[in-house]
Amino acid sequence: MPDTLEDFRAEIAEWIAENLPGELRGQPRNEDTICWGGRNWKFRSEAQKDWLERCHARGLTCPRWPVDYGGGGMSRDEEKTLRAEMARAGAPSPLDSFGIWMLGPALLKFGTDEQKAEHLPEITAGRIRWCQGYSEPGAGSDLANVQTRAEDMGDHWLVNGQKIWTSYADKADKIFALVRTDRDAPKHLGISFMLIDMETPGVTTRPIRLISGASPFCETFFDNVKVPKEGAIVGEMNRGWDVAKYLLTHEREMIGGGSGGLTTGATLSEMIGDMDMVAGADPVIRAQAMELEVDSLAFGLTMERYKDMAESGAGVGHASAMLKYYGTELNKRRQEIIMSARGSEALDWGEGLAAPWLRSKANSIEGGTSEVMLDIISKRVLELPSK
Amino acid sequence: MPDTLEDFRAEIAEWIAENLPGELRGQPRNEDTICWGGRNWKFRSEAQKDWLERCHARGLTCPRWPVDYGGGGMSRDEEKTLRAEMARAGAPSPLDSFGIWMLGPALLKFGTDEQKAEHLPEITAGRIRWCQGYSEPGAGSDLANVQTRAEDMGDHWLVNGQKIWTSYADKADKIFALVRTDRDAPKHLGISFMLIDMETPGVTTRPIRLISGASPFCETFFDNVKVPKEGAIVGEMNRGWDVAKYLLTHEREMIGGGSGGLTTGATLSEMIGDMDMVAGADPVIRAQAMELEVDSLAFGLTMERYKDMAESGAGVGHASAMLKYYGTELNKRRQEIIMSARGSEALDWGEGLAAPWLRSKANSIEGGTSEVMLDIISKRVLELPSK
Amino acid sequence: MLRDAARGFLDENAPVSALRANRDAGQAFDPGLWREMAQMGWAGVLIGEDHGGADMGHRAAGILAEEMGRTLAASPFLSSAVIAASALRAAGSDRLGQIAEGAALYALAVDEGPKHAPDLTAMEARPEGNGFRLKGRKVFVADGASADRVLVLACSGEGDEGLTLFDIDAGRAGLSRKGADSIDARDFATLEFEDVEATGEDVVGEVGGGLAALAPGLRAGQAALAAELSGLSAGISAVTLGYLKERKQFDRTIGSFQALQHRAAHLFAEIEVTASAVAHAGRVLDHEPENAQLAVSLAKARATQTAKLAVMEGVQMHGGIGMTDDYDAGFFMKRARVGAEWLGDYGHHAAIVAAARRL
Amino acid sequence: MLRDAARGFLDENAPVSALRANRDAGQAFDPGLWREMAQMGWAGVLIGEDHGGADMGHRAAGILAEEMGRTLAASPFLSSAVIAASALRAAGSDRLGQIAEGAALYALAVDEGPKHAPDLTAMEARPEGNGFRLKGRKVFVADGASADRVLVLACSGEGDEGLTLFDIDAGRAGLSRKGADSIDARDFATLEFEDVEATGEDVVGEVGGGLAALAPGLRAGQAALAAELSGLSAGISAVTLGYLKERKQFDRTIGSFQALQHRAAHLFAEIEVTASAVAHAGRVLDHEPENAQLAVSLAKARATQTAKLAVMEGVQMHGGIGMTDDYDAGFFMKRARVGAEWLGDYGHHAAIVAAARRL
């Protein structure tokens, strides 16, 4: 371990300079360049493959995970430094996955040593791609309303039911899912957090078409799926809700902050083009764009402020629901204004403006609706009474 | 009675031409010109007195009330024609009063013959000025939360308690008030609609100063007030809530529609002045003013449409809550925009802009808050469930 | 009565699922449906009886458009039966009979940029011999790819008075049309004019009087489009209210959550206020057409905003299901956006209102 | 720590009731309170130690202003300790010591019309002999009636470069002051200059460099005013939340109504987002003052809007009681409106942000 953060920074900068393939430097982050990994992953290029392998060997795919599982064993400050240097070098993320974002943290907190040893190295190496199975048709924001059930058949669980909004389920190797293991218990009890291989007979997926077009979302069906009991459940039996709640926070930060999201990085001005040209002297669009810009800049500062608070250990707690709420509503406004400013040309699918506009409408639904976020703020942060 | 509406129109136009004192013609409607009547009323001019007496003699102070009580005995269409002719001639209302707007309708629907004979002629002649005592400190929107109590003392009621928001209580001769006559009954029962003379010992008033300055509102205190039982209660004992509910509709229409309100009649453009001068090239104020103007014009058309619907007998029912909600919120927006457009000059009390701006904030509170209106719409009009 | 009849017909013959079927089949509208509409007199709603029309007036046309908006019924109604019929009627054209029959399909080619701005028309109408040569590009032409004839505004001289409106055959040499991949799955096309010939007979109204000739058609179209958007708002709102009353979450009907109730109530208010402006625009067009622009622009501005609110609340209140293509909410959202831009957006019409009110 | 100390002091010595007492007594602020503030180093918060200041910087000044906003504490802090101190410090004035002591009270006389527009200054500074004669009117001068000295911007030549900033004694011959009947019960005055004499020694910065000389003061004032409005929003919001938790209606605590909860939660979000912009503006002023205008305007724009929402929700959620003068909500509402206009309104600052972002 280097003695000081500055030594670490120098060391990592040098490592990046030596190991980052030139063609990856500064490439835009989008569906065509992201590396998701997994059994069936086809690398976009040799460079992508090399970069993943080198980063994995150096512990950079999961910098703060223990070294034993292929992580980097870094401190919070070291990870921050690493990210800053990666950004400075224009280096792409070597690996993205729900395993890194969601399952890993859950296993590190709730998993047995055997579970950690089995799954974490596969995640850090990008060998297994996970997807998440929480939502069910008819449940909506009420995630605890789990109808997919797992019956105890002695040596295995027999799983039947359906999940919805499982991103990339058609491309994933395994799924971590909430299933009901006790049908008589109260709603939030009786749920377990279960790991299931997507290749198990009886598991099928169907992509969901959104109003904005094709999407990574799927429906996932479980039809008499036999799951071996050994290591199937993470955390306590029937206490899967605790695990899920812990992870929801992660998901929220991801969507609200856009850290895992795909953004073009274009400014509003770039998206609108010459305001005088497109909107003429229209004070309505102009005023909306001005207001949006003011709010967006201030929201960006708020993201930073909250990140600093979180990193300084001050803790932001439930107030992070505010970031999810405000950030997603802001993006909806942004997309509306772009559509409005670009007028009729934006109404052709081919212009590429309509799909992100329509897709943005889901921002305030997925990962906890705006209504749920406002409930959380009013009850947990403002401590308004329920009666 | 004239044979046709056109005969009636000609007749009434001629009557107005002959009887309306010239100096009253076209005078603005404001606190200095309104005729409220009452025991202590001081007429602003001989003309005001003459006009009231002539109109009363002709049944025009309460055109649709029975002739026996000093009303005009007119049909709905005749009244409409009368109002049109009065407006055409620039004639002021001969008499305004809560007796006409509120108590009269209540007595006509719920009163005994004795009560009608005692009170209605005094109202139509402008000899008694009434005020309304519903709200109590701490009750707010929950009007049924009546704490003022009337104890049965055999030949009289003993009234103790306090009312708030009693407009012009310091100038009124009598009050119609909600009092609790059964303390053991459920909240909405056990309330009676009581008539009390303000000169009774124990009744005192105190004007309320608003954030916008002096106001006609008062607090009214009842301290061991003895009210003779004879004719004191309108409608059934302990069913005063029915009477109050009936009257609330009247009040709402008055405030939402502004028919009884004092309006300058100035357009937004007149209030703002030259937009280029005051707001310069500011697209924000300009856009807000444009949006307000669009919404105001459309709301005006909606008022007309609802009035037509009501007059055609189609009935608007609870949807009238929408008029109260939308109209008052619109006025708040209007006042905000005027203040904003007029900039620092509007911040001096002397300019006369700040008081109506601040006063407008009460519009969405008095006569049923916007929140109560939205509740009514969602439950009664949209029939959204309560569970 | 007209409304009830229209609603009954459209619920049965043109529900949202019909639009979906059109889209999936790649067709902008169903010609069979349009024939039936024409038989009911809808194609001739604004055409005099002397030309075989039903002559029911603009308020009636608005009621039909509102009902079409409610189910998102796709048809050439606005382009042909409203816009073209109104412009050609004012000009005394002899093609009204064909429109009333539903036989002639028209498109209005006016926009050249991303925003509606007829007075900035740059397309050339170069005088040549006894006629003109049209050269330039028109975009966002509703029903442009499927129309038989096109009303096109072009520059035949200098300044405002240099604009002329032509009524030409869509098959004329030099005119090429390219359908857009429109988000609302209807027919919006780009038209390229490469020295297209036009004669004096093709002129609608006077040479140099194009804006005046266009005005009756534009106003009528804007009012009917406002009505369509008003109906669309009522349509998605009804769907949403139905969902609020059925759907259960956290062991409660979601319509019982007060925060949603207040938003639904607010939306109701906006829809009611817009409906007044729409009805008023139709009546003013019927009784005082020359003074109708304020009323029409008021209606279009209001309807645009209300539809936007209605579809956004509709999707959000439906939650995830509202985002899926299997569900209807998206169709309302897309149509609302197209309707917002077509024939002038919110700012365009609000500016007309503001100017009329000296703001 | 600074925040806690300030809050403790202000809660005890300058609650809203103190502002009410000032108003009822017809005084704009309490000189005794200001002396105590000065003794704590607040008057010298932006003045170097060499002049007896505490030199704590703009973020610290913002924290003090936020806390003052929370209780609506009335004092000459912004005019003297922030605006004048910043402008005079940049110009190397020798009057800083008096400001740091709290002895010299300053006012900034810049506006001439209903909107803040320093670059449109028309007031005359006519060269005469070795000096100038000032002639014209300044309006909306904060602390203008009570100040000892006035910073005044006037036109000494042609164009933007013709503006000069003067620092003159408020008692100078020809200068008359008339206090406004301001809705927030503070000192806003109209100043009439009738050929007031000014010498070269009165010039702050360079002749013709008035806008540059004023800039540090304006930016600092705008940032601190934004902080005050941010604190005001938090203040009225805290009062409102307390009411929501106490008040019962329809047999329920009104804070349990979901519609109010969601609005309170939304307000919380707006307040948090504004607080970020305010903190950022203070930090940028401390570290990169020459590049601070975007950050400052962002803070002022946000704070203006948030305060407006906070006071409107505050009054509405309190219901009738919130409308009475006996209650504090009205004081917050009036101060928010005055703060919205002072030193540039929302549109003024949003336009600066938009221009910086090429919108």
From TrEMBL, chains A, B:
- Keywords, in A-Z order: FAD, Flavoprotein, Oxidoreductase
Q: Which cofactor does it need?
A: FAD
Which GO molecular function annotations are given, in alphabetical order? flavin adenine dinucleotide binding; oxidoreductase activity, acting on the CH-CH group of donors
Give start-end ranges for the coiled-coil region(s): none
Outline the extent of the Acyl-CoA oxidase/dehydrogenase middle domain. Answer: 131-225
Write one Pfam family the protein is assigned to: Acyl-CoA_dh_1
Q: Name one GO cellular component term.
A: plasma membrane
Q: Where is the Acyl-CoA dehydrogenase/oxidase C-terminal domain?
A: 238-382
Q: Where is the Acyl-CoA dehydrogenase/oxidase N-terminal domain?
A: 41-126
Question: What PANTHER family does its record include?
Answer: ACYL-COA DEHYDROGENASE (PTHR43292), ACYL-COA DEHYDROGENASE FADE29 (PTHR43292:SF3)
> Which family is annotated?
Belongs to the acyl-CoA dehydrogenase family.
Output this protein's name: Acyl-CoA dehydrogenase
From TrEMBL, chains C, D:
Presence of keyword Flavoprotein: yes
- For this UniProt record, give its keywords in alphabetical order, as a comma-separated list: FAD, Flavoprotein, Oxidoreductase
Pfam families, alphabetized? Acyl-CoA_dh_1, Acyl-CoA_dh_N
The record lists the membrane-crossing segments as: none
The protein's required cofactor(s) are namely:
FAD
Q: Which residues form the Acyl-CoA dehydrogenase/oxidase C-terminal domain?
A: 209-355
Q: Which Gene3D superfamilies match?
A: Acyl-CoA dehydrogenase/oxidase, N-terminal domain (1.10.540.10), Butyryl-CoA Dehydrogenase, subunit A, domain 2 (2.40.110.10), Butyryl-CoA Dehydrogenase, subunit A, domain 3 (1.20.140.10)
Statement: the UniProt record of this protein carries the keyword NADP: no
Q: Where is the signal peptide?
A: none
Cross-referenced InterPro entries = Acyl-CoA_Oxase/DH_mid-dom_sf, AcylCo_DH-like_C, AcylCo_DH/oxidase_C, AcylCoA_DH/ox_N, AcylCoA_DH/ox_N_sf, AcylCoA_DH/oxidase_NM_dom_sf
What sequence ranges are listed for the domain Acyl-CoA dehydrogenase/oxidase N-terminal?
1-95
Q: Name one GO molecular function term.
A: acyl-CoA dehydrogenase activity
- Describe the family membership recorded for this protein in Swiss-Prot or TrEMBL: Belongs to the acyl-CoA dehydrogenase family.
Official protein name in the record: Acyl-CoA dehydrogenase
Q: What organism is recorded for this protein?
A: Aquicoccus porphyridii
